[in-house]
Amino acid sequence: MIAQEQKPMEEILGYLDGKQKVVVMGCGGCATFYHTGDKKAVNEMAEKLTKEGKEVFKIVLPFSFQACDIDKSGIWLEKNRKEIENRDAVLLMSCGDGVQIVADYIDEKMGIPKSVIPANDALGLVGGGPTKFKETCQSCGMCELGKTAGICPLTACGKGLMNGPCGGVRVGNKCEIDEEKDCAWVKIYERMEKLGELDKFIEMRDPHEWSKAKRPRLFEIENPVNIMTAGIGALPGFIRLVIGPKPKLEEEGKGE
User: What is the value of pTM for the model shown?
Assistant: First the structure.
């Protein structure tokens, strides 16, 4: 998912300078997990803007209805067309993808020239959980994890080195840039050693294909997922996860 944090109110108010009537719109995707676009966040933002003298209309997207998925968020945009037309700006509580997708839709599909302003800063693709996450992928377009024992040097290495460690590995195998951080290439070496694949460590590699990371990248899916069918199909599993018995991580009494 995309990690994000809310911008300082001073910055948000700066973007809204001269804009009296504002739509505050949330996101039911990543922003909900980070509490930067869920119902509570939208209500709190609306309250803050109201205290600043703004006239606010709120659009709360349900869970799993991401702002960047225009087939979903577009439903709420069309439903609230009149409110959007009568407002000076839309403050979108999502990542930059959501802001741009919604801005294009409002402008090109709905025919409403309107400022769409970001309330959040996107920090990158992260993995982990349930409470601690770290950046794991830069979406470079050419995944090298098969060559590096499942550890990405672009994100794990402080210098993003792709062909081995630098000459500044600290005592204790720490990073030259950050003494609190483990050297990514030492970790790659140690994992390869565990796997019995140290021969891969010294292999000559072709240069990374950076051309696949040119921006913007465009994609087309031949058979898009049907939202209703997928949602209904996932519902039983979701209900079991929420109200069903929790799996035991280890057998009772084991290790005693």
Answer: 0.74
The CATH homologous superfamily of the domain defined by 2-125: Response regulator (3.40.50.2300)
* Closest C-alpha among 139, 113, 116, 115 to residue 126: 139
Tokens of 233: 């199909």
pLDDT given at position 241: 52
Q: How far are the Cα atoms of 19, 128, 138, 213, 248 from residue 1, in angstroms, in the given order?
A: 32, 10, 12, 19, 26
Task: Report the pLDDT averaged over residues 225-233.
Answer: 56
Give residue-wise pLDDT tens across range 89-120.
Answer: 999 999 999 999 999 999 999 999 999 999 99
d(CA 81, CA 19): 18
Q: Give residue 99's pLDDT.
A: 94
At residue 124, the pLDDT reads 82
Distance CA 239, CA 206 (A): 47
Please report, for the chain, the start and end positions of each structural domain, with discontinuous segments joined by +: 2-125, 139-210
Name the residue type at position 97: D
From the CA atom positions of the chain, what is the Rg in Å?
A: 23
- Measure the CA–CA gap between 84 and 100, rounded to whole angstroms: 16
Question: CA 47 → CA 44, 55, 156, distances in Å?
Answer: 5, 10, 40
| Placement of tokens 């140690």 in the chain | 190
